[in-house]
From TrEMBL:
Belongs to the MsrB Met sulfoxide reductase family. Belongs to the MsrA Met sulfoxide reductase family. The gene is msrB_2. It comes from Allohahella marinimesophila. Keywords: Multifunctional enzyme, Oxidoreductase, Signal. Its EC number is 1.8.4.11, 1.8.4.12. This is Multifunctional fusion protein.
Length: 393
Protein backbone atom coordinates (compact mmCIF):
# COMPACT_ATOMS: atom_id res chain seq x y z
CA UNK A 1 0.00 0.00 0.00
CA UNK A 2 2.93 2.36 0.41
CA UNK A 3 3.31 3.15 -3.27
CA UNK A 4 -0.41 3.84 -3.50
CA UNK A 5 -0.26 6.20 -0.52
CA UNK A 6 2.79 8.03 -1.88
CA UNK A 7 0.89 8.84 -5.00
CA UNK A 8 -2.48 9.46 -3.34
CA UNK A 9 -2.24 13.23 -3.74
CA UNK A 10 -1.19 12.92 -7.36
CA UNK A 11 -4.00 10.52 -8.12
CA UNK A 12 -6.57 12.85 -6.60
CA UNK A 13 -5.35 15.64 -8.84
CA UNK A 14 -5.50 13.37 -11.87
CA UNK A 15 -9.01 12.28 -10.97
CA UNK A 16 -10.02 15.93 -10.64
CA UNK A 17 -8.86 16.72 -14.18
CA UNK A 18 -10.72 13.75 -15.56
CA UNK A 19 -8.24 10.85 -15.68
CA UNK A 20 -10.19 7.66 -15.09
CA UNK A 21 -8.53 5.27 -12.65
CA UNK A 22 -11.18 2.57 -12.46
CA UNK A 23 -10.27 -0.95 -13.52
CA UNK A 24 -11.11 -2.54 -16.79
CA UNK A 25 -11.84 -6.13 -15.87
CA UNK A 26 -9.89 -8.55 -18.02
CA UNK A 27 -8.00 -11.79 -17.92
CA UNK A 28 -5.46 -13.55 -20.13
CA UNK A 29 -8.16 -14.64 -22.55
CA UNK A 30 -9.08 -11.02 -23.25
CA UNK A 31 -5.66 -9.39 -23.36
CA UNK A 32 -5.88 -6.62 -25.91
CA UNK A 33 -2.20 -5.81 -25.36
CA UNK A 34 -0.93 -9.27 -26.29
CA UNK A 35 0.83 -9.55 -29.68
CA UNK A 36 -0.94 -11.73 -32.22
CA UNK A 37 2.22 -13.47 -33.45
CA UNK A 38 1.75 -17.22 -32.71
CA UNK A 39 5.51 -17.74 -32.82
CA UNK A 40 6.06 -15.84 -29.58
CA UNK A 41 6.48 -17.49 -26.19
CA UNK A 42 5.10 -16.14 -22.90
CA UNK A 43 6.68 -15.93 -19.46
CA UNK A 44 5.05 -14.61 -16.29
CA UNK A 45 7.04 -12.96 -13.51
CA UNK A 46 6.52 -10.78 -10.46
CA UNK A 47 9.14 -8.49 -9.01
CA UNK A 48 7.26 -5.85 -7.05
CA UNK A 49 6.01 -2.73 -8.80
CA UNK A 50 4.97 -3.86 -12.27
CA UNK A 51 5.84 -0.46 -13.73
CA UNK A 52 9.50 -1.22 -13.04
CA UNK A 53 9.44 -4.87 -14.10
CA UNK A 54 7.66 -4.00 -17.33
CA UNK A 55 10.21 -1.29 -18.09
CA UNK A 56 13.08 -3.66 -17.34
CA UNK A 57 11.93 -6.48 -19.57
CA UNK A 58 11.09 -4.18 -22.47
CA UNK A 59 14.81 -3.40 -22.72
CA UNK A 60 15.73 -7.07 -23.23
CA UNK A 61 16.57 -8.00 -26.84
CA UNK A 62 14.03 -10.42 -28.22
CA UNK A 63 11.19 -9.21 -25.99
CA UNK A 64 8.32 -7.97 -28.15
CA UNK A 65 5.79 -6.83 -25.54
CA UNK A 66 5.35 -6.75 -21.76
CA UNK A 67 1.92 -6.46 -20.17
CA UNK A 68 1.29 -5.45 -16.56
CA UNK A 69 -1.32 -7.29 -14.53
CA UNK A 70 -2.12 -9.44 -11.52
CA UNK A 71 -1.48 -13.11 -10.79
CA UNK A 72 -1.17 -15.60 -7.96
CA UNK A 73 -4.51 -15.05 -6.24
CA UNK A 74 -8.07 -16.33 -6.37
CA UNK A 75 -10.01 -13.14 -7.05
CA UNK A 76 -11.46 -13.03 -10.57
CA UNK A 77 -10.86 -9.84 -12.57
CA UNK A 78 -9.47 -7.84 -9.64
CA UNK A 79 -9.06 -4.07 -9.73
CA UNK A 80 -5.87 -2.30 -8.79
CA UNK A 81 -7.48 -1.02 -5.61
CA UNK A 82 -8.48 -4.55 -4.63
CA UNK A 83 -5.02 -5.96 -5.26
CA UNK A 84 -3.35 -3.03 -3.49
CA UNK A 85 -5.47 -3.77 -0.41
CA UNK A 86 -3.64 -7.08 -0.04
CA UNK A 87 -6.87 -9.07 0.28
CA UNK A 88 -7.00 -10.83 -3.12
CA UNK A 89 -3.92 -13.03 -2.88
CA UNK A 90 -2.68 -11.58 -6.16
CA UNK A 91 0.68 -9.92 -6.67
CA UNK A 92 1.59 -7.34 -9.29
CA UNK A 93 3.01 -9.29 -12.22
CA UNK A 94 3.94 -9.01 -15.88
CA UNK A 95 3.59 -11.25 -18.88
CA UNK A 96 6.59 -11.18 -21.18
CA UNK A 97 6.01 -11.97 -24.86
CA UNK A 98 9.34 -12.91 -26.40
CA UNK A 99 10.79 -14.44 -29.53
CA UNK A 100 12.36 -17.78 -28.51
CA UNK A 101 14.62 -17.53 -31.56
CA UNK A 102 16.15 -14.36 -30.14
CA UNK A 103 16.24 -14.89 -26.34
CA UNK A 104 15.95 -17.93 -24.11
CA UNK A 105 13.87 -18.32 -20.95
CA UNK A 106 17.18 -18.53 -19.07
CA UNK A 107 18.04 -15.09 -20.42
CA UNK A 108 14.78 -13.72 -19.07
CA UNK A 109 15.55 -15.18 -15.63
CA UNK A 110 18.94 -13.50 -15.61
CA UNK A 111 17.25 -10.23 -16.51
CA UNK A 112 14.72 -10.70 -13.69
CA UNK A 113 17.47 -11.07 -11.09
CA UNK A 114 18.80 -7.68 -12.15
CA UNK A 115 15.58 -5.76 -11.59
CA UNK A 116 14.36 -6.90 -8.14
CA UNK A 117 15.27 -8.50 -4.79
CA UNK A 118 14.65 -12.28 -4.85
CA UNK A 119 15.32 -12.59 -1.10
CA UNK A 120 12.35 -10.49 0.03
CA UNK A 121 9.05 -12.40 -0.02
CA UNK A 122 7.12 -9.76 1.93
CA UNK A 123 7.22 -7.11 -0.77
CA UNK A 124 9.79 -5.20 -2.75
CA UNK A 125 11.63 -2.12 -1.51
CA UNK A 126 9.15 0.58 -0.35
CA UNK A 127 6.16 -1.50 -1.48
CA UNK A 128 5.28 -3.84 1.36
CA UNK A 129 2.82 -6.69 1.48
CA UNK A 130 2.13 -9.95 -0.36
CA UNK A 131 0.60 -7.96 -3.20
CA UNK A 132 4.18 -6.98 -4.12
CA UNK A 133 5.86 -10.34 -3.48
CA UNK A 134 8.22 -11.66 -6.17
CA UNK A 135 7.34 -14.84 -8.02
CA UNK A 136 8.05 -16.95 -11.07
CA UNK A 137 4.89 -18.44 -12.54
CA UNK A 138 5.96 -21.37 -14.70
CA UNK A 139 3.82 -22.55 -17.61
CA UNK A 140 5.40 -25.98 -18.10
CA UNK A 141 8.06 -28.33 -16.75
CA UNK A 142 10.78 -26.73 -18.87
CA UNK A 143 10.16 -23.32 -17.32
CA UNK A 144 9.94 -24.83 -13.84
CA UNK A 145 13.25 -26.68 -14.19
CA UNK A 146 14.98 -23.62 -15.62
CA UNK A 147 13.66 -21.43 -12.80
CA UNK A 148 14.67 -23.88 -10.08
CA UNK A 149 18.15 -24.29 -11.57
CA UNK A 150 18.65 -20.54 -11.84
CA UNK A 151 17.37 -19.97 -8.30
CA UNK A 152 19.70 -22.64 -6.91
CA UNK A 153 22.70 -21.19 -8.72
CA UNK A 154 21.87 -17.68 -7.52
CA UNK A 155 21.45 -18.91 -3.97
CA UNK A 156 24.84 -20.63 -4.05
CA UNK A 157 26.61 -17.66 -5.60
CA UNK A 158 26.97 -15.85 -2.28
CA UNK A 159 25.77 -12.63 -3.88
CA UNK A 160 23.10 -12.01 -1.23
CA UNK A 161 23.38 -12.06 2.55
CA UNK A 162 19.89 -13.60 2.81
CA UNK A 163 18.64 -16.76 1.08
CA UNK A 164 17.09 -16.44 -2.37
CA UNK A 165 13.45 -17.15 -1.48
CA UNK A 166 11.44 -16.11 -4.55
CA UNK A 167 8.52 -18.49 -5.00
CA UNK A 168 8.30 -20.69 -8.09
CA UNK A 169 4.68 -21.71 -8.63
CA UNK A 170 2.44 -22.97 -11.46
CA UNK A 171 0.81 -20.34 -13.63
CA UNK A 172 -2.97 -20.26 -13.31
CA UNK A 173 -4.44 -16.90 -14.25
CA UNK A 174 -3.23 -13.51 -15.35
CA UNK A 175 -5.55 -10.51 -15.21
CA UNK A 176 -4.54 -7.47 -17.23
CA UNK A 177 -4.09 -4.30 -15.22
CA UNK A 178 -5.87 -1.05 -15.94
CA UNK A 179 -4.95 0.90 -19.04
CA UNK A 180 -3.10 3.63 -17.18
CA UNK A 181 -0.66 1.08 -15.75
CA UNK A 182 0.49 -0.14 -19.18
CA UNK A 183 3.78 1.44 -20.31
CA UNK A 184 3.61 3.72 -17.29
CA UNK A 185 7.30 4.52 -17.58
CA UNK A 186 6.63 5.95 -21.04
CA UNK A 187 3.34 7.74 -20.44
CA UNK A 188 4.30 9.19 -17.05
CA UNK A 189 8.10 9.49 -17.15
CA UNK A 190 8.40 12.18 -14.46
CA UNK A 191 6.22 10.37 -11.93
CA UNK A 192 7.88 7.07 -12.80
CA UNK A 193 11.39 8.43 -12.24
CA UNK A 194 10.30 10.10 -9.00
CA UNK A 195 8.87 6.82 -7.73
CA UNK A 196 11.78 4.60 -8.77
CA UNK A 197 14.42 6.93 -7.34
CA UNK A 198 12.67 7.11 -3.99
CA UNK A 199 11.90 3.40 -3.88
CA UNK A 200 15.57 2.43 -3.53
CA UNK A 201 15.18 -0.32 -6.13
CA UNK A 202 17.99 0.67 -8.46
CA UNK A 203 20.34 1.69 -5.66
CA UNK A 204 19.95 -1.85 -4.29
CA UNK A 205 20.50 -3.44 -7.69
CA UNK A 206 23.63 -1.37 -8.35
CA UNK A 207 25.02 -2.37 -4.95
CA UNK A 208 24.34 -6.08 -5.45
CA UNK A 209 25.35 -6.45 -9.08
CA UNK A 210 27.85 -3.66 -9.74
CA UNK A 211 29.54 -4.12 -13.11
CA UNK A 212 27.61 -7.37 -13.66
CA UNK A 213 24.30 -5.53 -13.83
CA UNK A 214 24.67 -5.20 -17.60
CA UNK A 215 24.13 -8.56 -19.32
CA UNK A 216 25.59 -9.70 -22.60
CA UNK A 217 22.35 -11.07 -24.01
CA UNK A 218 24.23 -12.62 -26.91
CA UNK A 219 25.05 -15.43 -24.47
CA UNK A 220 21.33 -16.15 -24.14
CA UNK A 221 20.45 -16.12 -27.81
CA UNK A 222 19.61 -19.59 -29.18
CA UNK A 223 22.23 -20.64 -31.70
CA UNK A 224 20.85 -20.90 -35.20
CA UNK A 225 23.51 -23.40 -36.26
CA UNK A 226 23.03 -26.69 -34.42
CA UNK A 227 26.29 -28.01 -35.91
CA UNK A 228 28.24 -25.42 -33.96
CA UNK A 229 26.45 -25.62 -30.65
CA UNK A 230 24.79 -28.55 -28.93
CA UNK A 231 22.63 -28.76 -25.88
CA UNK A 232 23.07 -31.30 -23.15
CA UNK A 233 20.07 -33.34 -21.99
CA UNK A 234 19.98 -31.42 -18.71
CA UNK A 235 19.39 -28.14 -20.50
CA UNK A 236 22.86 -26.75 -19.92
CA UNK A 237 24.91 -25.41 -22.82
CA UNK A 238 27.99 -27.47 -23.57
CA UNK A 239 31.40 -26.02 -22.95
CA UNK A 240 32.97 -24.31 -26.00
CA UNK A 241 34.67 -26.79 -28.31
CA UNK A 242 38.27 -26.04 -27.42
CA UNK A 243 39.66 -28.98 -29.41
CA UNK A 244 38.79 -27.19 -32.64
CA UNK A 245 39.81 -23.75 -31.40
CA UNK A 246 41.88 -21.76 -33.87
CA UNK A 247 43.56 -18.67 -32.52
CA UNK A 248 42.47 -15.53 -34.43
CA UNK A 249 45.09 -13.50 -36.23
CA UNK A 250 46.48 -10.28 -34.79
CA UNK A 251 44.05 -8.03 -36.65
CA UNK A 252 41.03 -9.90 -35.35
CA UNK A 253 42.41 -10.05 -31.82
CA UNK A 254 43.00 -6.30 -31.82
CA UNK A 255 39.41 -5.81 -32.93
CA UNK A 256 38.00 -8.17 -30.29
CA UNK A 257 40.15 -7.22 -27.30
CA UNK A 258 40.68 -3.96 -25.48
CA UNK A 259 44.16 -2.42 -25.89
CA UNK A 260 45.08 -3.61 -22.39
CA UNK A 261 43.80 -7.14 -22.98
CA UNK A 262 45.76 -7.36 -26.22
CA UNK A 263 48.90 -5.93 -24.65
CA UNK A 264 48.78 -8.38 -21.74
CA UNK A 265 47.81 -11.57 -23.57
CA UNK A 266 49.73 -11.05 -26.82
CA UNK A 267 52.66 -8.84 -25.83
CA UNK A 268 53.32 -10.18 -22.31
CA UNK A 269 52.54 -6.87 -20.60
CA UNK A 270 51.53 -6.52 -16.95
CA UNK A 271 48.55 -4.49 -15.81
CA UNK A 272 48.72 -2.07 -12.89
CA UNK A 273 48.30 -3.56 -9.41
CA UNK A 274 45.17 -2.66 -7.39
CA UNK A 275 43.66 -1.15 -10.55
CA UNK A 276 42.06 -4.18 -12.17
CA UNK A 277 38.58 -5.70 -11.86
CA UNK A 278 39.33 -9.10 -10.33
CA UNK A 279 41.79 -8.28 -7.56
CA UNK A 280 38.88 -7.63 -5.18
CA UNK A 281 36.42 -10.09 -6.74
CA UNK A 282 34.76 -12.00 -3.89
CA UNK A 283 32.06 -13.99 -5.67
CA UNK A 284 31.94 -17.66 -6.50
CA UNK A 285 32.61 -18.45 -10.13
CA UNK A 286 35.11 -19.47 -12.76
CA UNK A 287 37.91 -17.58 -14.54
CA UNK A 288 38.43 -18.39 -18.22
CA UNK A 289 40.86 -17.26 -20.91
CA UNK A 290 39.72 -13.97 -22.48
CA UNK A 291 40.67 -15.22 -25.96
CA UNK A 292 39.52 -18.85 -26.06
CA UNK A 293 37.20 -19.25 -23.08
CA UNK A 294 39.23 -22.20 -21.79
CA UNK A 295 38.77 -22.76 -18.01
CA UNK A 296 41.72 -21.54 -15.94
CA UNK A 297 40.89 -21.06 -12.26
CA UNK A 298 38.05 -21.57 -9.78
CA UNK A 299 37.15 -18.97 -7.18
CA UNK A 300 37.76 -21.63 -4.49
CA UNK A 301 41.48 -21.30 -5.10
CA UNK A 302 41.58 -17.50 -5.14
CA UNK A 303 42.97 -15.65 -2.14
CA UNK A 304 44.03 -12.14 -1.18
CA UNK A 305 47.79 -12.07 -1.65
CA UNK A 306 48.06 -8.35 -0.97
CA UNK A 307 49.96 -7.84 -4.22
CA UNK A 308 47.18 -6.05 -6.11
CA UNK A 309 46.63 -8.81 -8.68
CA UNK A 310 44.18 -11.74 -8.56
CA UNK A 311 46.08 -14.66 -7.05
CA UNK A 312 45.34 -18.38 -6.96
CA UNK A 313 46.90 -21.37 -5.25
CA UNK A 314 46.44 -23.64 -8.27
CA UNK A 315 44.87 -23.80 -11.74
CA UNK A 316 41.57 -25.60 -12.34
CA UNK A 317 43.58 -28.64 -13.49
CA UNK A 318 47.32 -29.18 -13.91
CA UNK A 319 47.30 -29.02 -17.71
CA UNK A 320 45.09 -25.91 -17.90
CA UNK A 321 48.21 -23.74 -18.00
CA UNK A 322 51.78 -24.14 -19.16
CA UNK A 323 54.98 -22.81 -17.66
CA UNK A 324 57.73 -20.98 -19.50
CA UNK A 325 60.99 -19.38 -18.42
CA UNK A 326 60.95 -15.59 -18.35
CA UNK A 327 64.26 -13.68 -18.22
CA UNK A 328 62.78 -10.26 -18.98
CA UNK A 329 63.10 -8.76 -15.51
CA UNK A 330 65.99 -9.15 -13.06
CA UNK A 331 66.71 -12.81 -13.52
CA UNK A 332 64.55 -15.83 -14.12
CA UNK A 333 60.81 -16.01 -13.42
CA UNK A 334 58.25 -18.67 -14.30
CA UNK A 335 55.70 -17.37 -16.73
CA UNK A 336 52.18 -18.84 -16.93
CA UNK A 337 50.38 -19.11 -20.27
CA UNK A 338 47.06 -20.66 -21.21
CA UNK A 339 47.41 -24.12 -22.70
CA UNK A 340 45.21 -23.64 -25.76
CA UNK A 341 45.20 -19.96 -26.72
CA UNK A 342 48.80 -19.43 -25.56
CA UNK A 343 47.77 -16.21 -23.83
CA UNK A 344 50.19 -14.64 -21.37
CA UNK A 345 48.41 -14.82 -18.02
CA UNK A 346 51.00 -13.88 -15.41
CA UNK A 347 53.63 -15.64 -13.29
CA UNK A 348 53.82 -18.24 -10.54
CA UNK A 349 55.81 -17.75 -7.33
CA UNK A 350 56.65 -19.97 -4.37
CA UNK A 351 55.38 -17.57 -1.68
CA UNK A 352 51.79 -18.78 -1.63
CA UNK A 353 49.79 -20.06 1.37
CA UNK A 354 51.67 -22.81 3.18
CA UNK A 355 48.42 -24.56 4.13
CA UNK A 356 47.71 -25.12 0.45
CA UNK A 357 50.09 -25.61 -2.46
CA UNK A 358 52.60 -22.99 -1.30
CA UNK A 359 52.28 -21.39 -4.74
CA UNK A 360 50.97 -18.01 -5.86
CA UNK A 361 49.65 -17.89 -9.39
CA UNK A 362 49.70 -14.13 -9.87
CA UNK A 363 47.42 -13.39 -12.82
CA UNK A 364 46.40 -10.36 -14.87
CA UNK A 365 42.67 -9.57 -14.78
CA UNK A 366 42.96 -8.42 -18.39
CA UNK A 367 43.86 -11.94 -19.48
CA UNK A 368 40.71 -13.51 -18.03
CA UNK A 369 36.94 -13.33 -18.00
CA UNK A 370 35.07 -14.01 -14.77
CA UNK A 371 31.76 -15.88 -14.96
CA UNK A 372 29.64 -15.81 -11.76
CA UNK A 373 28.42 -19.18 -10.54
CA UNK A 374 24.80 -18.43 -11.39
CA UNK A 375 25.76 -17.79 -15.03
CA UNK A 376 28.14 -20.72 -15.50
CA UNK A 377 25.66 -23.29 -16.79
CA UNK A 378 24.24 -20.94 -19.39
CA UNK A 379 27.76 -19.96 -20.47
CA UNK A 380 28.76 -23.59 -21.01
CA UNK A 381 30.62 -24.36 -17.78
CA UNK A 382 27.92 -26.35 -15.98
CA UNK A 383 30.24 -29.27 -15.29
CA UNK A 384 32.15 -27.11 -12.80
CA UNK A 385 29.18 -25.60 -10.94
CA UNK A 386 29.17 -28.15 -8.12
CA UNK A 387 32.87 -27.54 -7.50
CA UNK A 388 32.60 -23.78 -7.10
CA UNK A 389 32.73 -22.01 -3.76
CA UNK A 390 33.51 -18.39 -2.74
CA UNK A 391 37.19 -17.36 -2.57
CA UNK A 392 39.26 -17.88 0.54
CA UNK A 393 39.09 -14.91 2.91
Amino acid sequence: MKRFSVFAAVLLVLAFVGVKLNAMDSDASDNQYAPKDPGLSVATFAGGCFWCVEAGFEEVPGVVEVVSGYSGGEETNPTYQQVASGQTGHTEAVQVYYDPQQITYDGLLQALWRMMDPTDTEGQFVDRGKQYRPAIFYADDAQREAAETAKKALNESGRYEDPVAIEIVPFEHFYVAEDYHQDYYKTNPVRYKFYTFNSGRYQFIDKIWGEDRELDYAEYRPDQNEDKKMTQSNGQTEQPDLQSFVKPDKAELKARLTPLQYSVTQEDATERPFDNPYNDEKRAGIYVDIVSGEPLYLSNDKYDSGTGWPSFTKPIKPDAVVEDSDFSLFGKRTEIRSAIADSHLGHVFSDGPKDSTGLRYCMNSAAMRFIPKEDMAAAGYGEYVDQVKPPKS
